[in-house]
């Protein structure tokens, strides 16, 4: 399979998971993270989302130093998205560890949630800039 085809499949999957993680995040925010099932759904969707984000970056940059690659990016949106995503991931891991130990909401979970919403907003800008890629019928056109 061509790299561009893999990227198209990855990006469409990320678009779907972006919507899913947003919905589950809003649901957790609205219910103050009550309900273990809701939290587990968010964790599972978040892990899938994180895996696909990493795969998306890998498809673009391979095994090179991602920190150096993002530092050199011309787009400030992409650079900011990298850092916000990284902090969202780190706070998510800390929140997960806390939640698995106590099954209660922690202040770091609130930070994670706010960063996550910021990440979704910035991701929307990242996606909108590349909307032609999503609209193209043929893999490899419009990106």
Note down, in words, how this protein is organized.
The chain has 143 residues and is mainly alpha-helical. It has six helices and no strands. Helix 1 packs antiparallel against helix 2, helix 1 crosses helix 5 and helix 4 packs antiparallel against helix 5. The longest helix is centred in the first third of the chain and has 28 residues. The mean pLDDT is 92.
Write a compact overview of the structure shown:
The chain is mainly alpha-helical and 143 residues long. Helices cover 80% and strands 0% of the residues.
Percent of residues in helices comes to: over 70%
- The coarse overall form would be globular
Number of strands: 0
Q: Which segments are poorly predicted (pLDDT under 50) over 5 or more consecutive residues?
A: none
Please compute the radius of gyration using only Cα atoms. Answer: 16 Å
Give the number of helices. Answer: 6
- Main beta-sheet annotation: none
The helix-strand sequence is HHHHHH
Query: What is the first-to-last residue Cα distance?
Result: 17 Å
Beta-strand proportion? under 5%
The helix-and-strand class reads mainly alpha
Q: Mean pLDDT, as a whole number?
A: 92
């Amino acid at each position: 399979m061509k790299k561009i085809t893999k990227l198209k499949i990855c990006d469409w999957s990320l678009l779907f998971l972006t919507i899913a993680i947003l919905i589950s995040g809003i649901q957790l925010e609205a219910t103050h993270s009550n309900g273990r099932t809701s939290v587990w759904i968010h964790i599972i969707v978040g892990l899938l989302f994180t895996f696909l984000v990493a795969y998306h970056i890998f498809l673009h940059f391979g095994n090179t130093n991602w920190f150096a690659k993002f530092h050199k990016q011309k787009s400030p949106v992409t650079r900011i998205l990298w850092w916000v995503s990284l902090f969202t991931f780190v706070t998510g891991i800390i929140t997960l560890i806390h939640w698995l130990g106590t099954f209660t909401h922690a202040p770091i979970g609130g930070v994670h949630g706010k960063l996550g919403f910021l990440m979704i907003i910035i991701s929307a800008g990242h996606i909108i800039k590349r909307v032609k890629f999503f609209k193209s019928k043929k893999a490899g056109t419009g990106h």
